[in-house]
């Protein structure tokens, strides 16, 4: 049961970059999750498709700051050739 307000912004963004000529298949995932102390965590996970990959976590006091950084990382990766998976945001 959800006790807080409904949130319309995406919690997860999934990007990928594929180039068969270079044998490249990579993913980049940006998740926003609440922490136990009332803040939020932006979790960045990336690597080769089918592998576990690497992960970094960034803590924020509020959701707006986390969303700002999530959007900035997504733009940065799109400039590097990543694209949204199926043009959708993962719920």
Automatic annotation (TrEMBL):
Stretches assigned to the WGR domain: 3-91
CDD domains named among the record's database cross-references: WGR_MMR_like (cd07996)
Pfam assignment, any one: WGR
PROSITE patterns, per database record: WGR
InterPro entries: WGR_dom_sf, WGR_domain, YehF/YfeS-like_WGR
Protein's recorded name: WGR domain-containing protein
Organism in which the protein naturally occurs: Paracoccus angustae
Classification lineage: Bacteria, Pseudomonadati, Pseudomonadota, Alphaproteobacteria, Rhodobacterales
């Amino acid at each position: 049961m959800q006790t807080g307000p409904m949130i319309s912004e995406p919690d997860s963004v999934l990007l990928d970059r594929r180039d068969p000529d270079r044998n490249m298949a990579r993913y980049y995932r940006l998740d926003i999750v609440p922490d136990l102390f009332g803040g939020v965590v932006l979790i960045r996970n990336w690597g080769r498709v089918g592998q576990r990959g690497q992960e970094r976590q960034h803590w924020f006091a509020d959701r707006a700051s986390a969303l700002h950084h999530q959007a900035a990382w997504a733009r940065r990766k799109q400039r590097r050739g990543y694209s949204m998976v199926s043009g959708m945001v993962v719920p």
